[in-house]
Write a structure and sequence with these properties.
With 86 residues, the chain is α+β, with helices and mostly antiparallel strands. 29% of the residues lie in helices and 30% in strands. The longest helix is centred in the middle third of the chain and has 13 residues, at 49-61.
């Protein structure tokens, strides 16, 4: 489960060979969400509203990089790192 970013206690992962649709996992304070990369909707899970807002803001800023990271992970390559929300 490669970590691609970390900010404000939120950890973002993309799994190798994960199921479609393209998505990432964000964890914070015991909660976790799966977020669709293409339309930035929550597919599953929950986070506190403020943490979820930061995840969505970060994802909107890095949507193309997220899709590239997803594609690399699907090829069993390192998804790389994406800058944190600052």
């Amino acid at each position: 489960m490669p970590e691609i970013s970390r900010f404000y206690g939120i950890v973002v992962h993309i799994f190798y060979s994960d199921h479609a649709p393209p998505h990432f996992h964000a964890k914070y304070a015991g909660g976790e969400v799966l977020v669709s990369i293409r339309d930035l909707t929550v597919l599953e899970g929950r986070l506190p509203p403020r943490a979820l807002g930061m995840v969505m803001e970060w994802a909107a800023l890095h949507q193309p990089e997220l899709l590239e990271a997803w594609n690399r992970a699907q090829r069993q390559e390192s998804p790389g790192k994406i800058p944190p929300l600052s």
